[in-house]
Please model this.
Amino acid sequence: MSTRWLVTGARGLLGQDMMAELATRPDTVVTGLGRAELDITDPMAVRAVVRGHHVVVNCAAWTDVDGAERSEAAATAVNGTGVRHLALACADSGALLLHVSTDYVFPGDTREPCSEGAPTGPVNAYGRSKLAGERAVAELLPRTGYVVRTAWLYGAHGRNFVATMLELAARHETLDVVADQHGQPTWSRALARRLAVLGRAALGGRAPAGVYHGTADGRTTWYGLAREIFRLAGLDPERIRPVGSEEFPRRAPRPAFGVLGHGNWARCGLAVLPRWEDQLTAALAEHPFAALAEAARAHRPRASA
Model:
């Protein structure tokens, strides 16, 4: 018997990889809806599209972190209320919900990885909006709701740090990159694979509902990530210069330490995502990153930034 999956936010960075991953799975029928086809802040529309599906993967989100500081109500309408609509529809239809959240629900004031049950405490509006969505899933779907927190996401579809570094490498001799924020760079394709595995395990009764951390194994800084991008792309890592966060002031404060623990994967016998270095190596071997790296090698600038 085929299982029917619905992916919301299917035109985004993660959503496109999620669609591609599910398309490779036998006995899986997948429907993907982008923002133009489904506004998750519309409860009637959400109820109509969820009906008939076994698993809903919510990749729809307000992702403009700095914009959320200016428009917290609008961000919460998507990341909080919209998720509540999805959870209510799943509760009515019996579908499982896999909801993608963020490390920004934590304050980032520790030096040890945050476990799935660690106290939350967002330091910005974006984190507060995402935490509202998490709470809706926990409240409405205690047995069939899954929150998967990710961080430092990059991929082939959309703007992200890896693509930006490779593009800047072709225009600037040196780049200043923040060295005092710690996290886990995570390839969207690897996360999509892990979400598909989790959904199948949930359908089979092998993964309890709750919170899972969908981030790469290991940790680094933005500076460390930039150096590894350059190294793997055949560029000189010494072109990357470390600076403090104060050199790049942002409207929304960022957690200084966003490293997450992965205990719940092991508890249900599922593997954690690969190390961030291995994910990056695989990603840079594929389009469009390989093309960006080739362009950066071919157009090294003469002048410093």
Remarks:
- The two ends are 58 Å apart (CA to CA).
